[in-house]
TrEMBL record:
Region (Disordered): 288-324
Name the UniProt record assigns to this protein: M48 family metalloprotease
Statement: the UniProt record of this protein carries the keyword Signal: yes
GO MF, any single term: metallopeptidase activity
Organism (species): Chloracidobacterium sp. N
Length: 444
């Protein structure tokens, strides 16, 4: 019997404990330990004055504006600023006058000259699949500001002899003319945004905590690193050389996974992953009809347990049918009058044997941190209910992260059509089509 699987990005509820309790815990060595020992006051020692940093950032912005074209659509600009300020407000330097600019460029890049000025290319926004991934990039750039990496960059240029006569600036005596000349030279030469590998790691470290305390799911930073690794392999030409000079995505993924496991356990299972506003902004940038990320190719549909009756098929699924897009899911949610729902997994196929391709759709979704599921059969939407301790409810006993797959088992001569929601532990929740709706058969 045929089974068709397609995956969707998930969203869950917000949450985040106090920074100090997380960031200063002691534990075994990990790549971020060297940054953990620094507090925000220690990072500021030896840095240029805030006045000079802001003046330099303004001069750099004027030069950047000559090289790049900025997006002026207020919906896009305001949205990126909202996401950026959300992570900046919980950072170690919340009082900087943060400004976020969207650069009209298809290369994958984001950068900051310091002073709270942060720039992100449309190419990166369009490639991201969730708001959490966008927040991870902006939180990383905020991390460069919190780490006072501008001052370190200026010191390095002086030490290597690239720029002469900036000692006064670093000591807080910088004249506007010197700052302007320095900004022009560094921006034009591309040296301003070339950080050391350790600075990039520190920005990841700081950004991870800012993202967490802003209420985002930290797994989206991991997903961003996975996305970057995939893009680098498929389309290396889409990367700006600045972004490509970061540590390899695989290393960055490993570092953040270890930090989450040791210090932020559970933060990758809760928090915001995406929003409707993110999807709307991608549409304004020309991203339409995007299918939700598919179920991993190596995922195997679990065989039926021996329960006395074989209620589901055990054969491997055939090739998938037409993909389910975010737009498809939104239309179904609208017909079901389901407000604030975000799809987790979805599948489209033929349930009743009347169409070779099939338009019947099963969606597992998250709403307010709870998991539910529904089926669209020929344009009519049916919520899926379960029996739990004698109570009928449409809430599945799963966390959003635990939803692994959904499937359709078409009608056959042996049984009625069925739909299945599968958990990460391979527990299956099964419903059977009765002709008027769906009857819950139980979990297996």
């Amino acid at each position: 019997m045929a089974m068709l699987l397609v995956g969707l990005v998930l969203v869950s509820a917000m949450g985040g404990p106090v920074w100090a309790a997380d960031r200063n815990r002691s534990a075994g060595p990990n790549p971020y330990d060297k940054f953990r020992r620094l507090d925000d006051r220690a990072r500021a020692r030896g840095a240029m004055s805030v006045r000079d940093e802001l003046a330099f950032a303004e001069m750099a912005h004027q030069e950047i504006a000559k090289q790049y074209r900025f997006v002026t659509d207020p919906v896009i600009v305001n949205y990126v600023n909202q996401v950026g300020r959300r992570v900046a407000e919980v950072s170690g330097r919340p009082d900087l006058p943060y400004q976020f600019y969207v650069v009209e460029n298809d290369q994958i890049n984001a950068f900051t000259p310091g002073g709270g000025r942060i720039y992100i290319h449309t190419g990166l926004i369009k490639q991201a699949t969730t708001e959490g991934q966008l927040a991870a990039v902006l939180a990383h750039e905020v991390g460069h500001n919190v780490g006072y990496h501008l001052s370190a960059t200026l010191r390095r240029t002086q030490t290597t002899g690239l720029i002469i006569g900036i000692a006064g600036i670093l000591l807080g005596n910088g004249a506007i003319g010197q700052l302007g000349q320095l900004a022009v030279t560094l921006v034009a030469g591309g040296k301003l945004f070339q950080r050391s590998r350790d600075q990039e790691r520190e920005a990841d470290f700081l950004g991870l905590y800012d993202m967490h305390h802003a209420g985002y799911n930290t797994e989206e930073m991991n997903n961003m690193f996975r996305l970057l690794g995939s893009l680098m392999q498929r389309s290396p030409g889409t990367f700006d050389k600045i972004f490509a000079s970061h540590p390899p995505p695989a290393e960055r993924l490993q570092n953040t996974q270890r930090e989450i496991a040791q210090y932020l356990a559970g933060s990758d299972q809760r928090g915001v992953r995406t929003t409707q506003a993110f999807i709307d902004v991608q549409r304004r940038l020309g991203v339409t009809g995007r299918a939700v990320p598919p179920t991993p190719d190596d995922e195997v549909w679990p065989a039926s347990r021996d329960t006395g009756a074989d209620t589901t098929a055990s054969e491997p699924p055939p090739p998938r049918s037409r993909e389910v897009t975010y737009e498809d899911a939104e239309a179904i949610f609208s017909r079901a009058d389901l407000q604030g729902a975000n799809p987790l997994r979805a599948v489209r196929g033929d349930m009743l044997g009347s169409d070779a391709v099939g338009n019947d759709t099963v969606i597992a979704y998250e709403q307010g941190g709870r998991v539910g599921a529904l089926v669209d059969v020929s344009g009519r939407v049916y919520p899926l209910f379960i029996e739990d301790r004698g109570q009928r409810t449409n809430v599945l006993p799963l966390a959003p992260r635990e939803v692994a797959a959904v499937g359709i088992i078409p009608v056959s001569s042996q049984q009625r059509a069925q739909v299945v929601v599968v958990s990460q532990r391979r527990l299956r929740y099964v419903w059977e089509w009765t002709g008027r709706g769906f009857r819950y058969l139980g979990s297996q």
